[in-house]
């Protein structure tokens, strides 16, 4: 998945209008030395990418929480490779038609291998 400049600006203007997300001049003088994507945008784009794979289409009953980190910034034009791994599966004791799954999603910048997103998400899934 690629993070285009216009999407970065549009998301940030709407949901996270910090100067380093929306203003290239101020971003250049800011802590990241240039414009970067909102971490929330990176999370939303990654989750959307995973959903479009069809992985969860037949089984997802929603989420129950997540732990996340943004260890490196995402810049306009960065290509992010996304992986998902099942960390834990727990059948529900009270509802035999479902269970809880913990997935680890990782976003890695393809140009240099830097991890830009780590998420440990809890999903409720049909069995």
From TrEMBL:
<protein>
    <submittedName>
        <fullName>Acyl dehydratase</fullName>
    </submittedName>
</protein>
<feature type="domain" description="MaoC-like">
    <location>
        <begin position="7"/>
        <end position="93"/>
    </location>
</feature>
<dbReference type="InterPro" id="IPR002539">
    <property type="entry name" value="MaoC-like_dom"/>
</dbReference>
<dbReference type="InterPro" id="IPR029069">
    <property type="entry name" value="HotDog_dom_sf"/>
</dbReference>
<dbReference type="Pfam" id="PF01575">
    <property type="entry name" value="MaoC_dehydratas"/>
</dbReference>
